[in-house]
Amino acid sequence: MVQSNLAFLTLKGFFAFGLFLCALFSSFAASAQQAAPSLPLLFDARERLARPDLSSLVRLRFLTSVDFPPFNFTDQNGKLSGFNVDLAREICSELEISDKCQIQALPFADLRDALAASQGDAIIAGLAVTPELRRQFVFSRPYLMLPARFVRNLAVPLDGKTAAALSSHPVGVVRGTVHEAMLAAFFPAIKAQPFDTKDALLAALKDRKVDAAFADALQLSFWVSSPASAKCCALFDGPYLSEHFLGEGMTIMLRQKDSVLTSAIDHALATLSRNGRLQEIYLRYFPYGLY
């Protein structure tokens, strides 16, 4: 399976994580939205992307999966939900083609072949952009980046508010991940302590076996706000973005022949970024913020 290389959760982990998120959203989203940081703009405010004529478009079929929460998942009522699902609907609304818009969920492994066989028009499911895929498909502009973040144990005194304050402290990281490589490249003065799994890393942080951890912001932001952390910890410094380590970001994949539709989606994404609708969707599914 070629899943997005931004979040680094296993399929089983994503499913369990999704059930947790569904419950978490219903309890805390309203209050958290008031304090969550803003979503960084990925489109230049001065840039104007033309809106192509889609009057001849018969329909726009988005393909997604149900195993990548909080981006795509089936909610407690059996309804297809998630950040990507809501974004797809908002794109159709912005392009004034809601009556022609469809969203279909398939097994993740089948998405690429389904798009190539014209069984859909666009994949919005967290596919990582790779050179191989770029030879066969085209991608929209990125609409979301998932950064890396530090999280610290609040019981540990730190001499400063930046990553430099961690140079004399053990910092945990999951072994063999891009976050381990990114930590070594960005912060060579920090002493990294590797763990085999995310759960082992977070347990060590909670028990003060390490003073901080470096990992995916998506996982960390929900963990520090969940009962599992027992309020031991908080996000610290950052966010940190790197195309080299974390990829190009969340994009929409289309067939190469669909350049007009790609341009239309880029136009919609730019508009939603500027008018605040993308921010609203972001806060709906990331109430504690990633940045």
UniProtKB/TrEMBL annotation:
Cited Pfam families: SBP_bac_3
Listed InterPro entries: Solute-binding_3/MltF_N
SUPFAM superfamilies (alphabetical): Periplasmic binding protein-like II
Residue ranges of domain Solute-binding protein family 3/N-terminal in the record: 59-289
Signal peptide: 1-32
Principal location: periplasm
Keyword Flavoprotein in record: no
This protein's UniProt keywords: Signal
Subcellular location: Periplasm
UniProt keyword annotation of Nuclease present: no
PANTHER family noted in UniProt: L-CYSTINE-BINDING PROTEIN TCYJ, MEMBRANE-BOUND LYTIC MUREIN TRANSGLYCOSYLASE F
Protein name according to UniProt: Transporter substrate-binding domain-containing protein
Organism: Rhizobium aouanii
Lineage, top ranks: Bacteria, Pseudomonadati, Pseudomonadota, Alphaproteobacteria, Hyphomicrobiales
